[in-house]
Amino acid sequence: MNIGIVSLGCAKNQVDLEEILAYLKANGFETVSDPALADIILVNTCGFIESAKKESIDAILEMVSYKKPVVVTGCLATRYLQELKKEIPEVALWIPLEDYPSFGEKFQTLIKDRKLKGQIDPTKRLFISPKREAYLRISDGCNNFCTFCAIPYIRGRFKSVPLDTLKTELGDLENTGVKALTVISQDTSMYGRDIHSSLTDLVKEIVKHPGFDFVKLMYLYPDEVTPELIDLYSHNNNITPYFDLPVQHFSDHVLKRMGRRGTKQDIIDLISAFRKKVPDSIIRTTVMVGFPGETDEDFEELLKMIQVVKFDHLGCFMYCPEEGTASYKFTDQVPSAIKKKRYNAVMKEQKKISYELNKERIGKEYKCLITGYNPTDFTYDCICNIYAPDDIDGKLRLYSKNPLNPGDLVKAKIVNALVYDLEGEVSEIIRKA
User: Fold this and answer.
1) I want to staple 41 with a disulfide (CB 3.0 to 4.6 A). Which of 1, 4, 185, 190 is the partner?
2) What region does 285 belong to: left with phi over 0, alpha with psi -120 to 50, or beta?
3) In which element (H, E) is residue 136 found?
């Protein structure tokens, strides 16, 4: 029996789906990308922000048009379960996050030709990431309750994955040939505090696996990053000095209203510590403009600090009121036109910063893992220290005099800088695939 898959949302959602797919495969199902070839279609949804909700609903409506049984999982199915059941009765089965432990029992109602066995196993996944790349999800849920964010209401309270479970996963990932590991969570820096452990303890376990060429930490809540973690990076070359620190803002007034802990100075001190102690640190962030009550002075403070800090990569979001969150009821909402103006100003500034930093990288050499070839321009795609694995920051494209294969590990020298992307020439083949 064929299962058609539509995967939406973030990397954490992807890990959920990979666990579901491993369970289905263990029970004899095959996955197909063409819904027309499917016997059942599974849509894994996102319900985080308005645009994601619309994308999920559009995908569901498109899939039900195939006149096959449609199963909907993920955050949207959790956040709006009862409303969606009424609005889209054509869906055969809704499985919210809290029902994943009984996924087999739910799914069994659609299956007549076999008896499903077992449960979803968090250590077993059918990867949909590109070969040699994988996410390691180390926790779920969130305790921060930022006033703009619905995640705690969808995913629940923070819960770390047991360290022994992650040790098993790390061994399996290394044995299956994963070379680029991206550590993810709703709040990665909180890891272990509910199970008498820490993110530093976990990173110490990760570095015991030399098969990983790249290890990147995403979603580090700034005030939870410990000096011990920074020191670990400063003394260990086996972990990638790439840090995702979503600061959201620099105005203490706005940070407080957002429900963020720490101050502007705390953020500045943390970034300074990374750059002082961890050579060649790459620091990416996200900021939000147009949060309720953000004044012109607040925004100017944000823009000034972006100019001062000079993040290697920066993403900007315009505030979107999310029902169920505290800020949804704030009365001092910022007009859309002002949000857009501020967004454009931030991105214009970051564009200049990114280009300046990229020009400074010309002549430097970086370790790169080849992931593919582009016959149109004769370049190779790769994973390196500079960018996130999903190309959200930009790309490094490589030229090589000798043919390369996916999985080759090379050293490359940067020869050209674009606004967000870089171009390099392979100077050495470190390891063949």
Assistant:
1) 4
2) beta
3) strand 133-137
Q: DSSP string of 83-118?
A: HHHHH-TT-SEEE-GGGGGGHHHHHHTT--SS---S
How would CATH label the architecture of 365-431? Answer: Beta Barrel (2.40)
Distance of CA 6 to the CA centre of its chain: 18
Phi, psi of 174, deg, nearest 5? -65, -40
* pTM of the complete model: 0.92
CA dihedral for 231, 232, 238, 242, sign (positive or negative)? negative
Condensed to tens digits (0 to 9), the pLDDT of residues 103-137 reads 999 999 999 888 999 999 988 999 988 889 999 99
Strands across the sheet containing 133-137 = 133-137, 180-184, 214-217, 242-244, 282-289, 313-318
Q: Is the pLDDT of residue 33 over 90?
A: no
Q: What is the mean pLDDT of residues 396-403?
A: 96
What secondary structure, in 3-state letters, does 65-77 show? Answer: CCCCCEEEEEHHH
Given the candidates 3.80.30.20, 3.30.70.270, 3.10.20.880, 3.40.50.1970, the CATH classification of the domain at 133-360 is 3.80.30.20
